[in-house]
Specification:
The protein is an alpha+beta fold and about 190 residues long. The protein contains 4 helices and 9 strands. The chain has one domain. About 30% of the residues lie in helices and about 25% in strands.
Length: about 190
């Protein structure tokens, strides 16, 4: 019970620091480590005990202020109030077990330069997170998200009527009736 509580509190504290991490990373620039790979990260025993699949989530390694961070992705499963349930996405595309964390009401995620509350996150939304190797803590930054502009559908004005379609259908039925009458006269 206490081990779970420590992990949940650690996740909540680190999620509350996610905004600061994201802002500092985007303003100072993150450095992708070319010498350290995901296999070289030394995960602490506590992190491995609570998250045995953490090594399969690592996409690449970044270094910031001498600390190594593994870039991973998560999918938001559910958000109720300030409780977020998410599933980690492994590098092979499979998804891990659901995990829940209760966030502070002041917690914000920085996505594409815009701040979002936990309640603003949508089900199925995928976020890039940065995990330090010494603890399981999520720092959310999603600057790679591109928004697609959806064009509005052109609709007929509300004053338009289907009179043209009714006339066209009537003309088609008249032509069909004329053809059937002509065929009947030839056959008799």
């Amino acid at each position: 019970m206490s081990k779970k509580m420590v992990v949940i509190v650690g996740m909540a504290l680190s999620l509350s620091a996610g905004q600061l991490m994201a802002q500092a990373t985007s303003s100072t620039g993150k450095v992708q480590s070319s010498t350290v790979t995901c296999a070289d990260l030394n995960w602490s025993a506590e992190v491995l005990a609570a998250n045995p699949d953490i090594a399969s989530m690592c996409q690449t390694v970044y270094e910031k202020d001498g600390k190594l961070y593994a870039k991973t992705s998560i999918e938001v499963v559910r958000v109720r109030g300030n409780t977020m349930t998410f599933r980690p996405i492994h590098t092979d595309g499979t998804k891990g077990d659901s995990r829940s964390v209760t966030l502070a009401s002041s917690w914000r995620a920085n996505i594409a330069g815009r701040e979002y509350r936990a309640s603003d996150l949508a089900r199925g939304q995928q976020l890039n997170v940065y995990l330090p190797e010494d603890r399981f803590a999520l720092a959310i930054e999603d600057v790679e998200t591109e928004f697609v502009v959806i064009e509005t559908v052109t609709e007929m004005p509300t004053t338009a009527s289907p009179l043209f379609l009714i006339g066209l259908a009537g003309g088609a039925f008249l032509a069909l009736g004329g053809m059937l009458s002509g065929i009947r006269r030839r056959l008799s």
